[in-house]
Amino acid sequence: MIFDRLKSALSGQQAGPSHRLSQALLPVSAVSHQLHARAVAFVHDGSNPEVLLELNTANAPDLDQLMMRPGQAKSWTHGLHIDLQKRLAAVGVTGEPPLAVPQARFAFYRDTSVSQPQFLRFGYLLAAVGNGPNRRVDGVPLWLTTLLNDLSGVTSRDAVRELQWPPERFADLLRHDHAPEADIPGTVLLAVSEREARSGGRMIQPHQLPGIDNYLLGFGHLIVPGVVSRLSVDGRTGIAERATANPAVARVLAPVLAQLAGDVAKAVRSAAVSVLPLLPDDVLVAVLRPVLQTLPTAQGGELIEYLSRTPFGGALLDEAVAAGARLGPAVARANARREALQAASADEPPLLVPPFTPFSDDLDHESAVRELRAFVDGEIERWVRVGTRHGVEKAKENRKLTDDDLRQVVACATGRRGGHPLADFNANVLGRAVPSFNLLHLLRLGAGQRNARVGYLVHTRIDDIDDLRQVEDALRRSWNTETAFDELPQLAMASRYWGAIEPVVSWPWFATRPDVLQGWLTGDASDVGDALTVLNAFPSLPPSLLPSVAAVAMSRSRRNRPVAQQLLARHGAARALAEQGLSDTVGELRAASAGWLADLGDADAVPALRAALAKEKREVPRAALLNALQDLGDDISA
């Protein structure tokens, strides 16, 4: 190969194909050596372009599997039939194909001698294999999606930092493919943002490749907002999630986020609206003004509710309605809710958050050592019963543990830095074996362990937790990582944790972080339900959250609406809100408002019910109105 390059330099002719290119495409030889040679030549110098048609038609299912499905973004590595493994071995693929085949392509991607046009042709070639790529998006070339899918599929999480493939490099490939310059930033965003339907697992996904945020900071302002409508719901939601994680990206993508805040999908709208508080008021006004002009009423609920809570939102909404926006009735209802809540909140008592007692560092050392000794002795007996050679070795290792070793474990639990002799035992296991350890001790022992999870450790001591702030304090004194703190509020989500922390324990923490509950109240149905469950434990409802709770109480959610109505029954504005609902444009909500007034049991609502009954023409709302009047003691026979 070195001779070929020297000859090329002296003669001015292009050197022959590299060894890494040949190895990256070696599985093609299992179909045909001639096909492999033509494929290599095409990537190397562009000759034999007809090979793309040959790849697409010759042994397509086998070739796709032999290449380990290069165009597919995957959550796991697929196995390979033994016959195909033998064919690969016969052409020189050594090792396990699910590892060896991707590793050869990873080495090719890292080859700095490969030119951009060669990588472009490599993308064309991979896109012709099998059924082509998944994660397809209108307007994104198949070769680009294929390269992103393949690059993420052949890169292990440990090797991500070795990549030299920032989005700028894909943008350059688009230029080599003669893409219009103005379209390139949007095309790159679409290509990296679309999600696989079953994303997750241990494999890297294209949206997790490094450098995306930096690219958006440099070129995001050039992206036309409407382009993101081509993405799936998951892809559009993912853009909002990226902006949430990086406020600088949120500001650059402000026009895109404004567009998503009025999206056709509720999940996307909720995710985008939750990012808006990260943006300066003047930026929000500028990007939301054109969106409000054309926003359909059915897609404006979340945005209107958010703006009604901001200092500038009311004026912006009124301006939009005056300019002809179709949001007039929805804005009027939001304004009426806000005014009713403000009028009643003046009489509400202030929310007082009680103090909490942090977990203590103190520990009965000798008791903990005795419990650890009993645990170790039990492990020895268990391994002896196993009876295998491995069991004998494990029992032998455990017999070497002295009480001084166990005292080192206790010292680590109480704050001493460094490792300990039981580091191979999961902290969850130690938690069950050593009742003397409190949650703080267990978090210290679990810090740095690969399989340790905050939720699992919390569950081992859930009966000892009086306040979620104790857990936060313990995390600050042990793990002190952003990931751990992000998991903290999720411990109170009954929809996600089968052993969630009870609301009576978690509410004081949420009282100090109402922004978390605000995000849940504008999320999906499960998040809203979790927020309402926590709020039910509050002595009084936080004023900042009342508009969102009121919006849920007047929503179409049959699951969460009655819960929100029950919560607001403790607030002085409940009757006024329910009476407003009697004039809603949706019959189901008019009927629900009548039922809410009946549940409140306030006879002063009778005039409003009577007035609504006189106007109502639909049977279901009329029946609900009559039932409410009867429940409130009114004579409906008159």
List the helices and strands and how they pair.
Elements: H1 2-11, H2 19-24, H3 33-45, H4 51-57, H5 60-66, H6 82-90, H7 97-109, H8 116-127, H9 142-154, H10 167-176, H11 184-193, H12 212-219, H13 233-245, H14 247-252, H15 254-260, H16 266-273, H17 281-294, H18 301-307, H19 313-322, H20 328-345, H21 365-386, H22 389-399, H23 403-413, H24 427-433, H25 439-446, H26 454-460, H27 468-476, H28 482-487, H29 503-512, H30 514-521, H31 525-535, H32 546-553, H33 561-568, H34 574-581, H35 587-600, H36 606-615, H37 619-631
Helix pairs in contact: 3-4, 3-8, 8-9, 8-10, 10-11, 13-16, 15-17, 17-19, 20-32, 21-22, 21-23, 23-25, 24-25, 25-26, 30-31, 32-33, 34-35, 35-37, 36-37
% residues in beta strands: under 5%
Rg from Cα? 31 Å
Task: Please describe the biggest sheet, giving its number of strands, its sense, and whether it closes into a barrel.
Answer: none
Distance between the termini: 101 Å
Quick check: average pLDDT? Answer: 91
Outline the low-pLDDT stretches.
1-13
Question: How many helices?
Answer: 37
Number of strands: 0
Shape: flat
Alpha-beta classification: mainly alpha
Helix content: 55-70%
Structure overview:
- Residues 1-13 have low confidence and may be disordered.
- Helix content is 58%, strand content 0%.
- The protein has helices at residues 2-11, 19-24, 33-45, 51-57, 60-66, 82-90, 97-109, 116-127, 142-154, 167-176, 184-193, 212-219, 233-245, 247-252, 254-260, 266-273, 281-294, 301-307, 313-322, 328-345, 365-386, 389-399, 403-413, 427-433, 439-446, 454-460, 468-476, 482-487, 503-512, 514-521, 525-535, 546-553, 561-568, 574-581, 587-600, 606-615, 619-631.
